[in-house]
Amino acid sequence: MDTTTFHWSCRHTWKKSAKNTAWCVLGCAIGDLGTILFFQLSQIPFPVLGIMILAIINGLITSIVLETIILMIQKFNFTNAIKTAFGMSLISMISMEIMMNLTDYVLTGGAILTWWVIPIMLFVGFLTPWPYNYWRLKKFGIDCH
Asked: Is the dihedral of CA 88, 90, 95, 97 positive or negative?
């Protein structure tokens, strides 16, 4: 698509990019929140920054695994599904993960899950990459779902 015709007003693309972003948030949240919850419940002494780095890494891994499963359900073979999952935008996933963990850190001091912080983390995690995912889908037609 020519950059002169790019616009931010396509409802269809916003809807599709929102769906893609929601799947990514789900995948990332499983590993991210699961890691934080593990350390919170086990009370293993570990630095907050270390927990948050592990949470980000695990969030990226679970997002790739979930994406691979979704693609295989859509009749991709395993090799193509895993390649597509790894080819997803790391910019989108990393920005989502960093902002989710930064939100947790700012609101709770970090690596602490409470009933009220999780929805805020997920909301921020969704909003952060959504415009980028719209742009990527609209400009390049790159869609992973």
From this structure: positive
95, 56 contact by CB (below 8 A): no
Enter the tokens of residue 116.
């009220």
Name which of 62, 55, 57 is nearest 85 in CA terms. 62
Amino acid at 3: T
Please state, in angstroms and rounded to a whole number, the distance separating the CA atoms of residues 135 and 16: 11
Amino acid type, 142: I
What does pTM read for this prediction? 0.88
CB 52 within 8 A of CB 101: yes
In the chain, the amino acid numbered 47 is P
DSSP string, 89-116: -HHHHHHHHHHHHHHHHHHHSSS---TT
7-64 tens-digit pLDDT: 899 999 999 999 989 999 999 999 999 999 999 999 999 999 999 999 999 999 999 9
